[in-house]
Amino acid sequence: MAVLLTGGAGYIGSHTALCILNAGQDVVVLDNLSNASPEALRRVSELTGKDVPLFVGDCADKDALNRVFDQYKIDQVIHFAGLKAVGESVAQPLRYYRNNLDATLTLCEVMQAHQCFDLVFSSSATVYGTIQEMPLRETFPLGCTNPYGWTKFMSEQILRDLSHADERFHVVLLRYFNPVGAHESGRIGEDPSGIPNNLMPFICQVVSGRRKELSVFGNDYPTRDGTGVRDYIHVMDLAEGHLAALAYAREHAGTEVFNLGTGVGYSVLELVHAFEEVNGVRVPYRVTPRRPGDIATCYADPAKATNLLHWEAKRSLADMCRDAWNWQKNNPNGYHEAQ
Ligand code: NAD
Ligand code: UFG
User: What digits encode the pLDDT tens for the residues 169-199?
Assistant: First the structure.
């Protein structure tokens, strides 16, 4: 028996693969490598001493998925595959809807045909839209502000409808908050292509000298210091959340949704200062205007995951900053060879 990870060569998928292998389960990955390198899985294999079979193919390609299910006995699936850049989704909505929704639909059809019914889905806190009441609970009304978010919202709905119609399905929707950091070995981590959209990888590239300074997007938000507040979660805590979700899926039919966050928000400047202190470096920054579409504050109520998944985030902001920098320092060009 093996767990199929669609998009498993990516940032969260590779860390989750490592966790699952260390827990004694086998994994198989299907990834089209549109935003990943096979080197990540080679290193997961090196760290765990276990094989990580990689099928290079698209999750919307039924034949590619069928080949995986024909070759391996898959009993559970984690569906990471998807495009995830918010700004890009605004510029290229059709590409995002086509990629993310086709992948979800095709995967479900193939799972059903192969009698595989346990599915864990990568959703996002972005489905809460612009709600101002914090902390965010799973019962709050949803609404998105960009096509990427709508693909998550729609995929959640598709999976709910499916588990309603076919009671053999066991679906767990995981709404991630802001995953950062890397495995403590410094061998795997986040490897964004081009200019990073997200705060932590941008800070890492500034400190490593690849970029001149950080732009802090606005210091006039109604927060402690005026900068945006987010619920940063260590990627290894997140990966462990997937193990808990797989165990939950095994036992529970229908669809259940969980926030995966720490429940604590930090501002941009708090993160910058923590990074400087933990790593003994300077992060040059400049305050610039707000980034369109950003909200002031976003953090989770993770109580449901604590109670039902028996999981909670253990790693601190200092751990996140230390491990992110350890990865960046040891891999200044990510998974690519030095130029
Ligand atoms: P990532 O880009 O590193 O991983 C996604 C992987 O999916 C990549 O390896 C990419 O090559 C692959 N992929 C994309 N489309 C595919 C397709 N059609 N067929 C096969 N493979 C495909 O991103 P990540 O940060 O690891 O995110 C994993 C999932 O979690 C995504 O669905 C993302 O939307 C979601 N998520 C991420 C964050 C975050 O901040 N990183 C937050 C919330 C939700
Ligand atoms: N920020 C900066 N400078 C940067 C990058 C970010 O000041 O160069 C600020 C942002 O304004 C925000 C905070 O840092 O206040 C975090 O920004 P990120 O881009 O790292 O993360 P977001 O919360 O904006 O977005 C993340 C994911 C999205 C997801 C969203 C909601 O990247 O995919 O969380 O869950 F949709």
Answer: 999 999 999 999 999 999 999 999 999 999 9
Token pair 């959640």 in the structure block, residue = 156
Q: Do the domain assignments include residue 289? A: no
Cα 118 from Cα 11, distance rounded (Å): 22
* 266 tagged catalytic: no
Number of structural domains found in the chain: 1
Instruction: For residue 11, give the ligand nearest its CA.
Output: 1
d(CA 308, CA 295): 29
pTM score of the predicted model: 0.98
Q: So what's the pLDDT on residue 119?
A: 99
Which residues span the domain enclosing 111?
Answer: 2-180+232-261+304-313
Atom of ligand 1 nearest to the CA of 57: 20
Q: pLDDT tens digits, residue range 14-24?
A: 999 999 999 99
223 pocket-lining for ligand 2 (C-beta < 6 Å): no
Residue with CA at minimum distance from ligand 2 atom 19? 198
The shares of helix, strand and coil residues in the chain, as percent rounded to the nearest 5, are 40, 20, 40
In a domain, 152, yes or no: yes
Helix (H, G, I), strand (E, B) or coil at 264: coil
Across the chain, what does the average pLDDT equal? Answer: 97
User: What residue's CA is closest to ligand 2, atom 20?
Assistant: 198
Summarize the confidence of residues 44-62 as an average pLDDT: 98
